[in-house]
Known about the structure:
Elements: H1 2-20, E1 21-23, E2 29-31, E3 53-55, E4 58-61, E5 64-73, E6 76-85, E7 91-95, H2 107-113, E8 116-121, E9 132-136, E10 139-144, E11 151-155, E12 160-163, H3 168-172, E13 178-183, E14 187-190, E15 193-194, E16 211-218, E17 221-227, H4 240-248, E18 255-259, E19 267-269, E20 272-273, E21 287-292
Antiparallel strand pairs: 1-2, 3-4, 4-5, 5-6, 6-17, 7-21, 8-19, 8-21, 9-10, 11-12, 11-13, 14-15, 14-18, 16-17, 16-18, 19-20
Amino acid sequence: GCERMKYLRIALIVLMLACMLVLTPSGAIVAQAEVIELGLTDKKGLPPQKDCYLSDREYVDPSISVKIEAGRMDETNYLVARVKIANASQIRSAMAQTYSNPSKVFGASMAKRANAVFAVNGDYFSARMNVGYVARQGKVYRTKCDGRYDVLIIDDKGDLHIFKNATNDAIAAFDGVVVNGYTFGPGLVIDGVAQTGYQDMDNAALKPAQRMCIAQVGELEYLCICSEGPEDPGSVGLTLEQFTQLVASFEGVQNAYNLDGGSSSTMVFQNQKINSPKNPKKRELCDILYFASAYQP
């Protein structure tokens, strides 16, 4: 009986090892675990693989897929990036410098430094140093919510949560784990409901402009949408109401949050700013929101 148990244990170990290894067609043995979780405080993702760029608008590896499409609405051009990731550690933020020293650089430079597969601008946190909620990669830098702004929280599951007219109490009552928090807004779609009646605050709600948002359409699945503005040849720009209609027109949008717009609107792919290519205005940023590869060849 003991001898039998011994051989059974050996068989189980061999089976476990077989599950951990896979034989390639060439006969070489390689580890199957190709997708890792990135560390919360890591400054960058894993480098994108050159052969995973399927075109100048598409990237696919075992951990992330990005597909960028162009469209037109209300006499305005827009881009939409469809992003799907393998785990929540791949949706990340980066600063140009530090929170206390918010110097600015171009978004493409930040994206390259972070090994971003795809990136967009954040909320330009240094423009409002005395209001709102700011968290980056698990560290909370500011909690000064006075009810004027909608706040976006991205939690450790990669889910988007929008707090309308956020207060400190509302943020404190959040029972999830905060990874990144943004104050710009407003929320465009909240729990599947398109918002209306925007106030013309410092987001130029009633003025046709360049716009940028991030939306969640499923588990670890997102849309990033940017529209051109009146300074782009061939486009007139969108008001917030029009931009909301555009965002809500995509299937499955659960939550969508307006990020900084105007000349700050930045969409980066292959370390190049790809939106508003004919606009002479290009603004440096203090932060980006980006998606990283977690694929370890």
